[in-house]
Amino acid sequence: MVSAVPTDLYIAGRWTSATSARRFSVHDPATGLEIAQVADSGAADAELAMAAAAQAQESWGATPSRVRADILRNAFDLVIARRDDFARLITAEMGKPLREAQVEVDYGAEFLRWFADRATAGSGSYAASPDGKLRIMVTKKPVGPCLLVTPWNFPLAMATRKIGPALAAGCTVVVKPAQLTPLTTLLLTSVFDEVGLPAGVLNVVPTTKASGVVDPLLRDPRLRKVSFTGSTAVGQDLLRISADRVLRTSMELGGNAPFIVFDDADIDQAVDGAVAAKLRNMGEACTAANRFLVQSEIYDEFARRLADRFGKLHLGPGAEPGTDIGPMISERSRQDVHGLVRDAVDSGASVLVGGEIPAGDGYFYPPTVVAGVSADARVAREEVFGPVAPLIRFDSEDEAVALANDTEYGLASYLFTRDLTRTLRIPDRLEFGMVGLNTGIISNPAAPFGGVKQSGLGREGGDCGLEEYQETQYIGTPTPVANT
């Protein structure tokens, strides 16, 4: 499968080597072995990609919405037809279990279908001004050439979640995929090439030197928008550079999701939700539950049941039948997660299951439950990004809300309760862009995805996702007077 994937840059409708002729290695996190070499872009390649996007913008922006929609829908059909190929590739370069990779293909492809439908929905308005002197016409126009910077953890879905609305709105794009997982984006690019996307509309520039590609693009006067998914620290740097040109920005940044379980919750449902919210993608997701706040009356039972479930999961290579939890993306990530666990233990917490690095090849870390964690422990303050569930006890509703909101982040949160009034009351008090109510999975292409505080700006998915790539234009004209 890997050998059939294009590994060059894609600029102006052509596969091409990097100007420098450099290439870089992509590794399988289950073994640490190289599986491919990909062209390594530099500033000169970024300029060529931007030139192609700028040249194609006027034509693509004027393309009828039905044509844009058909291209997206045809791309959706082709991704689904190649579901197994995409899934095997995702597993090979990112590590997640094959059946979970198949779920990502379905999820990622759905962004193409959703935005294909939205492309032809139409927008704008025509109305008389209140004083009757003007006719007010409001239209939506494409923002213009966009830079899309995608992360490694969902290599297909994070690409389609940005490319889908940009193309539907009539924007051309330059995509900078993650260094660790560029192959899936390149395979997706071949799909767009096959379905007849015009040259220059989509350009892809993998690189090992992100700043060497991204920084000059942000300063290019032809660029109109940047959309970034990644760490808050990097997002802040991009916002600083973008401010000089007042660029339109979408930022989906870090998270520290609380998972709140009240004593009236259905514990079986809460444990199921906890496993899904924590271990999806091996915990390497910005929406992953990061802190488990459990009411004292059920704390011990919840901890026992969660540890039992975690302990029964099979850790192994994603392509191996029966694997529940694949490897982490890198040795550095594994060491970071293990360091948070050891710090919690040194501060008095206890490991109920997991917590040790297994012997052998690959970057594996077992599902881990840590009980007796203090609210100020590093594992409760930092984004874990791994299969570790720290448990924190609370007594009252006010305490739970205070603990949940005590973070600079505000992306996802989770709430488990059977009290109807509480289900209506607590979300209003939570400082998060998304709330999972009695569920551990909330991502959906039809829903607005995004956070508040230092978790970012803007929304992806839903109608909001399309609006991120549109400018509003107002046209005023005198009220027509009938000839008499």
Polypeptide structure, described:
- The chain has 484 residues and is an alpha/beta fold.
- Helices cover 40% and strands 20% of the residues.
- It has 15 helices and 20 strands.
- The protein has helices spanning 43-62, 65-81, 83-94, 98-119, 157-169, 183-194, 210-218, 232-245, 267-279, 296-311, 331-346, 378-381, 397-405, 420-429, 462-467; strands at 9-11, 14-16, 23-27, 34-39, 125-128, 134-142, 146-149, 173-176, 202-204, 225-229, 248-252, 257-261, 289-295, 350-353, 368-371, 388-394, 412-416, 434-437, 456-457, 470-478.
- The strands form 5 sheets. It has a 7-stranded mixed β-sheet with strand order 14-15-16-13-12-17-18, sandwiched between helices. The chain has a 6-stranded mixed β-sheet with strand order 9-8-7-10-11-19, sandwiched between helices. The protein has a 3-stranded antiparallel β-sheet with strand order 5-6-20, with no helix packed on it.
- Helix 2 (65-81) packs antiparallel against helix 5.
- The protein is globular.
- The N and C termini lie far apart (74 Å).
- The mean pLDDT is 97.
